Amino acid sequence: MNFWLKLVITLVVAAGIIPAVGMAIGFAEMKLSAKMQSRVGPYFAGGRWGWAQLIADGVKFFQKEDLIPADADRPVFKWAPALVLAATVAILVPIPFGPDVVGRNLDLGIFYALAVSSLSTIGVLMAGWSSANKYSLIGGLRAAGQLIAYELPLVLAVVGVVMLAGTMSLNGIVEAQASWFSERGWQFGLPFVAVQFVGFGIFMIASLAELSRIPFDMPIAESELVMGYLTEYTGFRFLFFFLAEFANMFSLSAIAATLFLGGYWVPGLSDAQLNFVGPVVLFAKIGVLVFIMIWFRWTFPRFREDQLQSIAWKWLIPLSLANILVTGVLKVVF
Amino acid sequence: MAMPKLPGIGMLKGLAVTMKTMVKTIVLPGKYLNTINYPVDKEAPVPRARGVIALDQEACTVCMLCARNCPDWCIYIEGHKEEKTPEKPGGRVKVRATLDRFDIDYALCMYCGICVEVCPFDALFWSPDYEYSENHMGKLMHDMDRLQDWMATVPPDPGPER
Fold first, then answer.
1. Average of pLDDT values for B75-79?
2. Is residue A44 part of a domain?
3. Alpha-carbon gap, residue A68 to A127, rounded angstroms
4. In what helix (H) or strand (E) does residue B142 lie, and over which residues does it extend?
């Protein structure tokens, strides 16, 4: 295919998928949280079920004044939301939605995705620092501390999968789940969650913390920090953060589904068929994981800062190291 | 002796509660929904709800106790004395206080009910009606005719409480 044509298509899809997915997840969260609290949720926008609520919210954000505090570090303040959203878009590049439906099949796909996802930490720190507001600063520093602590279990949980698959390419990891022990002749498909359930649990907990969602929302704890690093943001700059949060839920769930739940793979289909069925399957798996994240959010209260740090350093990191050890031993034995 | 609890069992119980509530609300919204679809369906307020204050103009004697006791100074009263000509020539001239203006500014009112408590002639009543929001703050100033109209919504006196 023509390079430029492919570039334009990729750009349009990337520019469309982030707001669309962000809005869909945001709407799902509004409706599901309402049902969990015996409420109706959005009802009037759009005529039925309030389906246009998120569109109306988006239009509302665009109408708002773009306020920048007088003491703010203006360029840093302005670019922080763009950096957070850019990191979110960049994570989607190596995620395979089908054997050929992938932005770019990188050899170091998972390494790249995890490296880029930590870029948003810098955006959050920029936002907290440049707002010239004590709540924002404390929120930004808490976010930095939390994201550094949970980056480690996140990466270490992935190591087990990479050891099993023998590759860091996300396409390769999906293919490895489709064909276990192919070098010994007996070939069968099984998602890695069957043996890496500990890693899967650690990955989901750590990605909740990476998203700084409840129960890990110390950085934006409303009751103590107003809104943390988001305090001074209005209008479309706030919308950027808002979209980035939901799009990040999508991309981290996509990585988790690809690594642990078999990604786009369905038994008994050829590559050509998987190119069409794969995206649907992956979206369904992402939907389940996103639902679990929403479910957690509306069930649990917030962790205290010291509890949050001790969970990461005392439990998740040793557990993921033990997981790597056991995986390595079993890999050598079998 | 109590059994030692499994670690994390409380978290699972919490998850079960939210899941159960969600399923119940989706499957049987009529039974488990705790909210009312307000502009379409309306909630019947309890009889003693403090919605709006009604005025019985006939009972009012322009004594100004309500206006003076109002913590927000949201009651405006003006009145004059009307002299009735005596029935027989040389008789005593009777004087009756008459209301010219009785306004309650609901933009200021904090619904404390002191005016209703303090009225010695039972001219002020609580009504549970609550639908009188306006697009303009000045329209929340209800004049004596509008306050008289609220009398129709005052529930009958339930009698002394036991």
1. 92
2. no
3. 12
4. strand B141-142
pLDDT at B51 over 60: yes
Q: What is the secondary structure of A4-52 as a DSSP string? A: HHHHHHHHHHHHHHHHHHHHHHHHHHHHHHHHHTT---S-STTSSTTTT
* Cβ <8 Å between A38 and B35: yes
Residue B97 has φ and ψ, to the nearest 5°, of -80, 135
Q: Which of B11, B32, B37 sits opposite A38 (nearest CB)?
A: B32
What whole-number distance in Å separates Cα of residue A76 and Cα of residue A82? 10
CA A8 to chain centre: 25
In a domain, A13, yes or no: no
Quick check: is A25 in a domain? no
Alpha-carbon span A301 to A293, nearest angstrom: 14
Alpha carbon dihedral B33, B35, B39, B42, in 10-degree steps, equals: 90
Q: Are residues B61 and B25 in the same domain?
A: no
Kindly state the average pLDDT of the residues A237-244. 85
Q: Does B35 sit within 8 Å of A39, measured CB to CB?
A: yes
Closest CA to B61 of B5, B120, B132: B120
The shortest CB-CB distance from A36 to any of B21, B29, B35 is to B21
Rounded to the nearest angstrom, the minimum Cα separation between B40 and chain A is 11
pLDDT of residue A182: 63
Q: What's the rounded mean pLDDT across residues B32-57?
A: 85
What's the domain count of chain A?
Answer: 1
Which span out of A86-95, A265-274, B22-31, B142-151 was modeled with the highest average pLDDT?
B142-151
**pLDDT at residue A164 tops 70:** yes
Q: Which residues contact A81 (CB under 8 A, 6 or more apart)?
A: A123, A127, A233, A237, A238, A240, A241, A244
What are A113's two structure tokens? Answer: 């995705």
CATH of the domain at B101: 3.30.70.3270
| Same domain as B125, residue B63 | yes
Kindly state whether residue A276 falls inside one of the protein's structural domains.
yes
Whether residues B101 and B141 share a domain: the answer is yes
Cβ proximity of A18 and A247 under 8 Å = yes
Q: How confident is the model at residue A183 (pLDDT cuts 50, 70, 90)?
A: low
Residue B12, domain extent: 8-43
At A188 the three-state DSSP class reads strand
Whether residue B36 sits in one domain with residue B56: no
Q: Are A36 and B25 within 8 A, CB to CB? A: yes
**Domains in chain B: how many in total?**
2
Residue A104 structural domain:
67-333
Is residue B161 in some structural domain? no
